[in-house]
Structures are given as structure tokens and as C-alpha cells.
Write a structure and sequence with these properties.
heterotrimer; A: mainly beta; five-stranded antiparallel sheet; three-stranded antiparallel sheet; 1 helix; 9 strands; globular; B: alpha/beta; Rossmann fold; 2 domains; six-stranded antiparallel sheet; five-stranded parallel sheet; 5 helices
Chain lengths: 91, 253, 201
Amino acid sequence: MKMQTSEMKLDGNAIAGLLGEIFAVEMTTAKGTCASCGAVNEVGRVEVYVQAPGTVVRCPACEAVLMRVVRGRGRYWLDLTGVRCLEFAEG
Amino acid sequence: MARAALLGRLGWQFGELVELVHETPRVASLYFNLPMWPGHLAGQHVDVRLTAEDGYQAERSYSIASPPEDRWVALTVERLDDGEVSPYLVGELKVGDKLELRGPIGGHFVWRGADDRPLLLVAGGSGVVPLMAMLRHRSSAPHKAPARVLYSSRTLADIIYREEIDRLVAANDGLSVTHTLTREKPAGWSGYTRRIDAAMVKEVAWPKAQAPAVFVCGPTPFVEAAADLLVGLDYDPLWIKTERFGATGGPGG
Amino acid sequence: MGFISRGFKGRRRDTASSSRLPPGQYLVNDFPVLSAGPTPRPNLDKWTFSIEGEIDEPKRWTWKELLALPADTVTKDIHCVTKWSKFDTTWKGVSLDTLMQGVETAAEYITAFSDGGYTTNLPLEDVMDGKAWVAYEFDGQPLHPEHGGPARLLVPHLYFWKSAKWVRGIKLEKEQHPGFWESNGYHLYGDPWREQRYWGD
């Protein structure tokens, strides 16, 4: 089955603001290891879908879900289980 | 100052619109006085937040058009017919009005003047905005890396910053700009008149031996096509940084 | 009173006190597209819809078989958790009552599953008795891929994230298993009339 490039697909630049809110440091240069396929990518290079009930971040190599973020009623729900390891510089 | 631009928890701040410049029939540049602005890097963006009287809020991201050394922070916005925020920014907002924004945001898609690698900038439509911040920053850098630009627009009238780009090229400091128009073939036009393709990219891009720093920005299909074409020239994907604009004309989708 | 952007009105939002609008929703005239991933484009020759799980013999229909089943054309209001509602949307599809005909099961819940990995959970009774369809036409036209075509689940009485796009089947379960959004902050049930958007609502 073919998956086609969706115009809805953005990249990690689109969640720079959101991740900056959550982590308090700039995250688009953070490196994430995909828990599914092991690919390592800077957050700036990952696939991001923002037109959804939440934000979904996918591995550019295998499309597995890396991260999910939902915001509502003053809370965040953050699922990072798709990222085996996140490496980023100290502040 | 540049380091501070990348760190720290971001907060919302207010800017006052001090000038509005119409660039093309649908595009305007807005210049803001932001007293709390910590400085920024070329390529970064801001989040803009509008609040209606009943409390309804809309947020969008816009690339910063001004270079770090400018006094005012400039955004260049295309008014989308079915947009929610862009018709307010380009059409309603007046000099003296305040705008709530947060930034600067982004650390991946940035270019620093000290980077002396040959530069390749590939722009689709309003994707030229963050790349223009880079070109403006380059023009005041003491040692200018040689730069090539490939800029795709629909028609002649849609080319944003056209005269300023011509002036930057006329400075003869190692910058060359190639335009392509996808919906028009004006009389006497010396640029390309088609969508970007392998032949065009091969003629414009640096040879791969130059290992350039590449920035590609525009709508997702444009960015993916351009990036694929460059990888097709044997460019290392790690040289290429991309920023995809969503349907709202900014990095946030 | 917080900051107000002078002159900003936002998209035309009918929040007028219509008794047809659940709390916190506004009315739209277009049909926003929401997506959590690339749009699947399955091969219809290989497409199937199945009922699996707590069932003696799993049931399966090919695309042609699904289209040959008796179908309903229904007009419904739909409500997205991102706050837009759309009135009088018209769909054609096969009722879950038709698909579940003759099925005996001890299951009280289902998980609907889709191409691309999306899942959503529902009580079985919320997809029976004329409350749910496998829909393949919208507004008289084949359902467009960006809206979930070839077929999506349609469960209009709950928030629209339960109407799984690109649906390929339902799994009958004795216990409830939170789906893609329900496991990440969204309400397990999702009744728009009680504004059940998030955990704890």
C-alpha cells in the first residue's frame, strides 16, 4: 500500500515553540533515536502533523510515531515512548 | 546575545507596529518595536497570538524577515483569502496597534554569518522570508560566504523583495540570484519559466565538491521536491536544512 | 481583562445559542481536514473490513462485498473535539447493525482499527441500534482520502475522533483498551453534550 506525501506534513520547526514551552530549552537541534527503527534525527528533521486533535511527530525514516502532544484545560499530555533516547545540550 | 536567543523559557510579549510596507499585492512586511526582544538569528520565527473580544484566540507562526542587526523585528506575511490571521495582519492591523508574539523560536533552521561555507538558498513563494533574513544578515557580515539563490514565484508581481534582491546582487559581492516563474512568461524575462526540476537545480546549485550549506523553505511539496533534487545531485542530506510551510503560510502549519 | 487584538474577529464562528450546538463548539461551513499522519492509499482489490476478537468466526468483507450490502443514507451533525461542528452532513454507508447481524459475542467494547495504525475504542452498544456506520460516501460523492476514504467509521453522537478514518475493521473486546488519542489525554468516551474532551472531564 502506498503512502503519499501529504501537504499536511511539516517538520520539527513547526513544534519548536511547543517543545520550547515544555522543555524550557530550544529543542529543534536535539537528537532523537527512533524506538522503532533506531534512526537518529535532529528534531528539526522529523515529520510533524499539527492539524489533528493533538500534535503527532513521526520518524522521517520509518513513519513510526515518535511523540504525541495533547494540550487542553491547562495541561499537557506528552507521550515520548516512540523516542528511545533524546539528546540535547544543557542550557 | 546570540546564545541568549536560543535559550530560556519563552514568554509572550507585545510589539507595537511602527511601519507597514506593501511588498506585493498580497504580501506586506510589518515592522515591530519590541522592547523585550532578546535578539535573534537569521532563519528563526515567531508565534503570533490574536485574541478576540470573546476570548477566542488564534495562533500562527511567521518567519522573521529582518536580520539580527536591525532595530525593528520584521515579519513578512502573505494574506490568504481564506485565512484567519493573515487577513488581520495584512488588512486590519494599523501602525500603533499592538501584537502579541513569542520568540525567537528555532535552532535548527538558522544561518550564522560566521559560517563560511558556500550558501545555497532555495525558496518557494513566501518561503523566501527566512532566507531573506539570511541574505540581509550576510550583506552586513564582514566576510561574505559566496551565495546562490534559486527563488520560485508564481508571477513577476509575486516576487517578494524584488528590488532589494536586485540591489543585493548589484553589490557584486559573490551573490547570484536565479528566479523562476511558474505561471507567467513576461516579455523580456531572463529567468526560468517553469517549476523547479533536475536541470534547473543542476545549473544553479553549487557543485557537490563545494559541500555547501543549503536552506530550503516553502510549501511542503516544493520543499520535498527541491530536497529530493539536491540529493539527486549527490548532496549529503545533512547539508540540507528544510522548513516546510503549512497551509497558513508559516512554519506552524 | 486580558489583551484584546483590536479589530480581530476570527473565523466566522456561530456560537449563537443553538440547541443543536454542544457546549464549547462553533459552527463551520467548510469541512476541516485533520490528520495525524500520511494519507493511506490502499489497493481496493486487497481492501477488507473485518470483525475480529471475541467472535467464533471472524467476519470479513471485500470492498465489492461491502458495497453490495444494504446501505443507509443518513444526515447527521458532527462535532470535532477541536471545537468545530458541522450540521447536516450526508453520508452513505453500511450500518454496524447490518455488519453485526448474526454475531454472538460476550464483548462489551470494540477497538476500531485503521490503515496507518490509528485506533479508537468504543462501548459496543455505542455502535449498535442505528448509531454507527462504515461510511464510503460523503455528500453524494465517494469519500475522499483526506476525509478518510475509501471508508471511515461514522459515529456522530460522539466526538469525531471516534469516527476512525481509513477504517479496516473492529475488534470485539471484553475490556476497554484506550485507543490512539484516548491513551494520550483524550476522554475514554467522548460525549460532546457533556463536553468530555480530556481525561478527567
